[in-house]
Write a structure and sequence with these properties.
By secondary structure, this protein is an alpha/beta fold. The protein contains 8 helices and 5 strands. The protein has 2 domains: about 210 residues, Nucleotidyltransferase, domain 5 (2-Layer Sandwich), CATH 3.30.420; about 45 residues.
Length: about 260
C-alpha cells in the first residue's frame, strides 16, 4: 500500500501564546514525489502583535517574505484566525477521506511537532470542536504525527554517526542515497516549506521501502566493511594492550619469585 504525506508548516509573530500565527501552509506529496495539492493561508494583518526579538532577529531579515503573508481580505483578526484553522481542518479531512477511498496510507508530518503542532492545536482548541493533533480530522481516531528532523537525525545516527551538525540532515541524506533535492526551497513561505517537509518525509519512506538505495560509494556493504575494519583495529589495540599487560605481570611474578628464593638461601 502506497503512502501520501500531508505536511504542514506555520509562521508566527513570536514564540509566546500572546503572539500570532500569521500563515499556515500545507502540501500533499505522493510516493513518486508529485505534489497532489497545496494550501496557503495568509494571516498577517495590521493587528498582528510581534515579539520584538522575533522581529529583530528574524522578520527584519525576511521582509519580502513577510509581505507575502499579508492578508488583505475583509475579515477581522479573530475571524481570520478562525477561517485559517477551519480551512486547514477541511483540507486535512479532504485528503484523509481521499486516502481511505483510494486504499492509501496518509501520514501527517511537520519539521517541528512541538512548535507547529502546538500552535495548530491552540487554534483547533480555540475555534473548532475537533480533536487536537495527533487525532484524525475526519475519524477523530488517534493517528501518528511524524517529525522529519527527528527521523532524519535518527537515520544519520545509524548510517553516518560522525555527522554531528544540527542542520542539513536532508542534504546529507541526499548525498548518501540516490535521490535528488526538492525543486523548491525552504524559504519561510509556509506552502513552500510544507512542500519540502513532505518531500523529505517521502524520501524517508522510500528509503524504508527500498525504493531508494544508497549510492555505490555508500553501500551498506562498504559501511559494514568500514565498521568491521574499525572494530578490528579496536580489537587489535585491545589485544596488544592485553598481551603487554600479561607480559608485565609475568615479569613481576618472576621477579617476586626470584626475590623469595634468594631470601630463603
Amino acid at each position: 500500500m502506497n503512502t501520501i504525506v500531508l505536511a504542514f508548516d506555520i509562521e508566527r509573530s513570536g514564540g509566546g501564546l500572546q503572539h500570532d500565527t500569521i500563515a499556515i501552509g500545507a502540501s500533499v506529496i505522493d510516493h513518486e514525489f508529485k505534489e497532489l495539492d497545496s494550501l496557503f493561508l495568509p494571516g498577517y494583518t495590521e493587528e498582528t502583535k510581534f515579539e520584538q526579538r522575533c522581529m529583530d532577529e528574524f522578520w527584519s531579515n525576511n521582509k519580502e517574505v513577510l509581505e507575502t503573508l499579508r492578508y488583505s481580505g475583509p475579515s477581522s483578526y479573530s475571524e481570520r484566525q478562525k477561517e485559517m484553522i477551519m480551512e486547514f481542518q477541511t483540507f486535512r479531512k479532504k485528503w484523509e477521506e481521499y486516502a481511505h477511498t483510494n486504499n492509501l496510507n496518509i501520514e501527517l508530518v511537520s519539521d517541528n511537532n512541538v512548535f507547529d503542532g502546538g500552535f495548530i492545536n491552540k487554534l483547533i482548541g480555540d475555534y473548532t470542536g475537533d480533536m487536537l493533533l495527533p487525532y484524525s480530522a475526519s475519524t477523530r481516531k488517534f493517528k501518528p504525527f511524524w517529525e522529519t528532523h527527528s527521523q532524519q537525525r535518527g537515520l544519520l545516527m545509524a548510517i553516518d554517526p560522525n555527522y554531528k551538525k544540527n542542520w542539513g540532515y536532508n542534504k546529507r541524506i541526499c548525498e548518501i542515497y540516490e535521490v535528488s533535492k526538492p525543486n523548491r526551497r525552504h524559504d519561510h513561505n509556509p506552502a513552500n516549506d510544507a512542500y519540502t517537509i513532505g518531500y523529505e518525509q517521502q524520501v524517508l519512506l522510500n528509503i524504508q521501502s527500498g525504493r531508494i538505495r544508497m549510492r555505490k560509494m555508500y553501500t551498506s556493504r562498504n559501511i559494514g566493511v568500514q565498521s568491521l575494519r574499525l572494530g578490528t583495529m579496536l580489537f587489535s589495540d585491545l589485544k596488544d594492550f592485553s598481551v603487554k599487560k600479561y607480559q608485565e605481570c609475568q615479569s613481576k611474578r618472576r621477579q617476586r619469585n626470584q626475590y623469595t628464593e634468594e631470601k630463603k638461601e
